[in-house]
Amino acid sequence: MKYKIEKDTVQETLILPLYSRKLCSELYPNLYRDETAVRLIDEIDYDFSEAEKNSRSLMQRFGALEVAMRQNDLAFEVRAYLKMHPCAAVVNLGCGLDNTGKACDNGRCKIYNLDFPDVIALRQQLLPAGEREQNIPYDLKDPAWFDKIDASGGAVFFASGVFYYFLTEQVRELVQGMADAFPGGVLVFDAANRTAVKMIAKTWLRTAKIKDVGAYFAVSDAPKEIGEWDSRLQVSSKGYMLGYNDLKAPSVSGFFRFLAKIGDNGMKMQIVKIGFGGRA
Asked: In DSSP terms, which residues pair with 193 in a beta bridge?
């Protein structure tokens, strides 16, 4: 029996990123593979005809490459932290139906997936928590969720496509609160400059039919701009299209590599890493 998702619902906003990850797996199998997304798309009763039609466009295919690189980069940073802290908490902030935490499981870490209660209710249906895993129903901006994380072995937090929709002050408050609660932990997330964030508001929010939400938080020089928030923060960043992978794969055209350069350099599309109180 398939799980039905209606059009114009909150649940629908989770389906489109999931479809993007499935599309990435098909278009760039040598770069990215999300078995969970492929499986879930088959288990969901939803009219994907519009998404399938859009997937043939050049920009949609490049958008899928962006998604693939972003997820790969975040997973790389999570695995790097786990090499030093094998029993750490791995926390997916604003998880939706993403299973990156499980994909990075080393058999010893603790996995937490955090999102709004209605999102977690859907996740419990489609991705029930496994061993050493918890799905936590909280608003990310409510620091009460800090108490739900066992960070005794360290903690690595990651957020994919989340902070764009926060005000800068909200991101700053969250980061400072996390620095208080999780010394020695690391937060990694994707960010971009003001030009790119305006494009997100015009394209992605409209495509996903998300209303009453804007794209706000933008960063150009993360070490300088975020580093000024608090002396305890060790901030670094890398371009997320080419900072971790040269994209010299048969599935990626020269034109897409050119666009990737523009993304990293012109739009400042980046993975930001923040260490709390210790070396990141």
From this structure: none
Dihedral over Cα of 31, 114, 271, 41: its sign: positive
Residue reference for tokens 């997100």: 200
Name the token pair of 158: 């990651």
Q: How far apart are CA 158 and CA 129, in angstroms?
A: 18
- Between the two ends of the chain, the Cα-to-Cα distance in Å is 45
HSE-CB at 256 with a 13 A cutoff on CA atoms is 21
**Rounded CA gap, 240 and 269, in Å?**
6
User: Collapsing DSSP states into helix, strand and coil, what is residue 89?
Assistant: strand
Angstrom distance (rounded) from CA 190 to CA 240:
8
pLDDT tens per residue, range 40-61: 998 898 888 888 888 888 888 8
Residue the block writes with tokens 């492929």: 38
pLDDT per position as a tens digit, 176-196: 999 999 999 999 999 999 888
Strands (E), the chain: 3-4, 44-45, 89-93, 110-115, 133-137, 155-159, 186-191, 233-239, 270-276
DSSP letter assigned to residue 262: I
